[in-house]
Amino acid sequence: MSDSEAAAEKQDPSPAETPGYSTDVAPTRKARRRPDAVPVAEAEERPKVEEQLPKTSSDSTVAQGGWGYWGSWGKSILSTATATVATVGQGLTQVIEKAETSLGIPSPTELSAQVEEEHKQQAEASSETDKATGDGPSAIGGAMGMLTSLSSVVQSTGKTVITGGLDALEFIGKKTMDVIAEGDPGFKKTKGLMIRNSTLSQVLREAKEREELQTAETESSDSEKKVVAHYGMLFDEFQGLSHLEALEILSRESESKVKSVLTTLSGDELVQLRDELENIKEAFSLVEFDDEEVEEKKDGTEFDRELMKALEGLSVSTTADKLNKVSRKTVRRFARVFSVVSVLRIQFPVVHILIFLYMSSPLFLHSCVFVCAKSHQEVHAAAIRSLAELTARSIELFHKLAEMILFSGGRTETSALSQLTVVLCKEISLLSKKFTSCLTTAGSTEKGDVLNPLITGVFLEASNSASYIQDAFQLLMPILEISHIQRRAEPTQQ
Amino acid sequence: MAYAYLFKYIIIGDTGVGKSCLLLQFTDKRFQPVHDLTIGVEFGARMITIDGKQIKLQIWDTAGQESFRSITRSYYRGAAGALLVYDITRRDTFNHLTTWLEDARQHSNSNMVIMLIGNKSDLESRREVKKEEGEAFAREHGLIFMETSAKTASNVEEAFINTAKEIYEKIQEGVFDINNEANGIKIGPQHPTTNSTLTGSQGGQQAGGGCC
């Protein structure tokens, strides 16, 4: 630990230039819930907040390594009622932690020096922190803590930073400071940044439209346009927005139906139903999975088993036979995307079924191209595209599940749904890690200021993707509630 | 690509009349004789040009099965156009039109443009519903009418595009409030360069009259 601290201290060329921010944000640090913040936070805090070191660094030893970042992130988000709001809140907390970063900006590779120390598998590199530059996985690890924090803030600030880099971080950092300066220690106001009256699909649509506008603007001047990938546009292309919109409609309607049912009940009946609904709600808000477990489950074998388990749990619960058939179609379409991930992880034997389905898809060729691609822009574009597709397919899956739950009235285990969500989010993070690793390799000859924004962009979108998936999961809650009400009303049917 | 307007469409009608095939023909220009049963709703999108303006059609292709009706009805709201489809070789699909129409009118906004489509016009030998009957029904209920074939692509483009034209005209006439997204119309992202003529966000309605 002390080695890494020393190394990082040496690495950090820019001690805080704005001490004022640090005092502002100090209290919020304690409120942080995501361990993934730790490595980055350490890097920034060290130069001036020495006395905090022992505590934070002991935290970090636990949180470091593998996919603990995402694992714990998913956990904390899922444990709150509304993923979006939670993400914004947490995002801001971390942005504040990173206020110095956004002004002093250590690059992901610099940050990685320290992360590297703690990665068991990279132990041998620990003495050569100088050489850490360009080392994919570790650079990514370091960037991760910082980047995950930005996801929703990006959406809410209303500034498009989809393809932006570190100056985007800076913008967000400043923006956050403005918000804090308004005297809102509880962050209630900042949560409102998520535009209280707009739905997720609206937010996404706006982001997409901004991208379209940008694209149109640069069209004439920028000949490289074709390799530039816009997440929002691609997400829409894969019908992610439409499925999300439809899911929102079903969710809203179910919610109002539940409310109206509740108003017709009274006395014991009402109390009982309330209790039952409360159980469903709890299942949605108490989704957890063991952090340590996640770290162990780094390899694809475990993931594929998990995914299959989650999907099985769902298909068993749908009663009608033909529905099953169609749901399998959706799952299959979706599984194709999944296997991109598996291809990347070179886990062929494990996922042979998925691979088989996937071989015929254009995406497969696409990913093959990218694996051998020489241009880092192409890798970046492929990364964004894959993230957008995987997310859109995930939303589609949730939408189809919602329709099937409403249609079949079959019993659906919330645990299967939450497990699916967790698996999806983990997969998003793995996907992004693989791509950024490729990116680092493909762009090894490039300077950091070319490569870093691209890496940042991938993590940013991965983080957004996970938020969207978690939001979609939350949208299922009223649907399970109304389905439950309908089932108990007609116990003889089904 | 940037578009001036986005119109939301729904496609409704009995199961097996060719709703998904019409969509596939329109978006992908191909015909697939065997189609999986649509669950709930599926989507398609395509860009068209009307009056020199790019318009994006976002099409919600609903399940025709009766048992899905309670779900698909939820999707009607916020549609600017509807394609109400029957099969000219199946009289019962024509007989159900009244129910579909009532449903559509009840669950969507009153200005929604409805195009009645008699599909499978390539199967002349098996025709059970005369073209005149379709026309009469459309006249009676104030719908636009067209016979199409998703298989040969006959009139498919026209059906989608004519509906869009009608919506576009209604926008010009000020019937649709384009700033209210519940009408199924969204204004595309506006270019800063053209903002001066379109007068920003609040001048949407004036813009419609202004540029013509």
TrEMBL record, chain A:
Q: Which InterPro entries match?
A: DUF719 (IPR007998)
**For bias kind Polar residues, which ranges apply?**
54-63
Which UniProt keywords are listed?
Phosphoprotein
Q: Does the keyword Phosphoprotein apply?
A: yes
Pfam families, alphabetized: DUF719
Q: Where is this region: Disordered?
A: 1-65, 103-142
Compositional bias segments (type: Basic and acidic residues): 43-53, 116-133
Q: Does the keyword Cytoplasm apply?
A: no
Family to which this protein belongs:
Belongs to the FAM114 family.
| Protein name in the entry | Family with sequence similarity 114 member A2
Which species expresses this protein natively?
Answer: Echeneis naucrates (Live sharksucker)
TrEMBL record, chain B:
Kindly give the InterPro entries that the UniProt entry links to this protein. P-loop_NTPase, Rab_GTPases_membrane_traffic, Small_GTP-bd, Small_GTPase
Instruction: Keywords in alphabetical order, please.
Output: ER-Golgi transport, Golgi apparatus, GTP-binding, Lipoprotein, Membrane, Nucleotide-binding, Prenylation, Protein transport, Transport
Where would you find this protein in the cell?
Answer: Cytoplasmic vesicle, Secretory vesicle, Acrosome; Endoplasmic reticulum membrane; Golgi apparatus membrane
What broad class describes the main subcellular location of this protein?
A: cytoplasm
Molecular function terms, GO-annotated = GTP binding; GTPase activity
The record, for SMART domains, names: RAB, RAN, RAS, RHO
Q: Where is the composition biased (Gly residues)?
A: 201-212
Write the protein's name: Ras-related protein Rab-2A
